[in-house]
Design a protein that fits this description.
The protein is an alpha+beta fold. The chain folds into 2 domains: about 110 residues, 2-Layer Sandwich (Translation Initiation Factor IF3), CATH 3.30.110; about 120 residues, 2-Layer Sandwich (Alpha-Beta Plaits), CATH 3.30.70. It is built from 5 helices and 10 strands. Strands 1, 8, 9 and 10 form a 4-stranded antiparallel β-sheet that branches. The longest helix is centred in the first third of the chain and has 35 residues.
């Protein structure tokens, strides 16, 4: 009996100790949460600033595809290589730097077609002669090979010449010219600095109006960053367009300006 009582007392002490430990942990966690959320209980001022920087584009970008279908992969690859080599020679003559020309993708796929086949008779288990109803068959007829290329043109006076080159080479999926700023990061930094300056001025004025003093910055956030090229006019060339047709339909291409924007939010502590 004494042994049982001892066990009971031990379990009671253990349970009480467990409850004490849980209470300590709960108090510690609550203190931690309150400390972590301390900034939300303090008075703050939140201001925003926006700015835009306009810049003239310094590159015109193009992308195009050269495609070929042949009975063998080697035939298709050889034809693609000759076409691309001709284009690269023309780009070099136009002064396009090799580092501004890049192959985006090179794909090879077998080409299949559905063809009619002669229906052959068959014999059922009971000896009945019949002809299968499906007389179409999917057969491989060759290979499709394509190479997609992108390039940057830094001399806008050469745009017409490049378009003529693409027309003569009968490229497909031509996209461009797209007039852009080649390295917008410096302009983005400038727009952000201007937006921060605007937010600071707002904060100073707001603190003055409220009769308070600004403390340290407790939060900074830069919202959506914008890069907006101005619209321009261009015409899409059709594969196989004759040289004279290109000459007559050469479009006027105003390059306009690109707009880069920044939107910031700054939260100050009030002293």
């Amino acid at each position: 009996m004494e042994t049982n009582k001892t066990h009971v007392k031990t379990l009671m002490y253990a349970g009480a100790l467990f409850l004490v430990i849980l209470s300590i942990l709960a108090i510690t966690a609550t203190a931690f949460v309150m400390k972590g959320n301390k900034s939300y209980d303090e008075n703050t001022i939140s201001v925003t600033g926006t700015a835009e920087v306009n810049a003239a584009p310094d590159v015109a970008t193009f992308s195009f595809t050269v495609k070929e279908t042949s009975k063998t992969i080697k035939e298709a690859q050889d034809t693609i290589s000759r076409k691309v080599e001709t284009i690269l020679d023309g780009l070099e003559e136009a002064g396009v730097d090799e580092k501004d020309i890049k192959t985006q993708s090179y794909t090879m796929y077998p080409k299949y077609e559905w063809v009619k086949v002669k229906a052959e008779q068959d014999v059922a288990l009971d000896g009945t002669i019949f002809y299968p109803g499906d007389t179409n068959k999917r057969v491989q007829t060759g290979f499709d090979v394509s190479q997609n290329v992108t390039l940057k043109l830094r001399d806008f006076d050469k745009v017409g010449e490049i378009l003529e080159l693409f027309a003569e080479a009968e490229v497909e999926n031509l996209n461009g010219p797209n007039f852009q700023v080649d390295e917008p990061d410096a302009l983005q930094d400038e727009a952000r600095a201007l937006a921060i300056d605007e937010a600071k001025e707002k904060a100073k004025q707001l603190a003055k109006d409220l009769g308070v003093k600004l403390g340290k910055v407790v939060s900074f956030n830069e919202g959506s960053r914008g890069y907006y090229p101005e619209p321009y006019y261009a015409k899409t060339l059709t594969a196989g367009l004759a040289y004279d047709a290109v000459e007559e339909s050469a479009p006027e291409l105003p390059v306009g300006e690109n707009t880069i924007s920044s939107n910031v939010t700054i939260i100050y502590k009030i002293k």
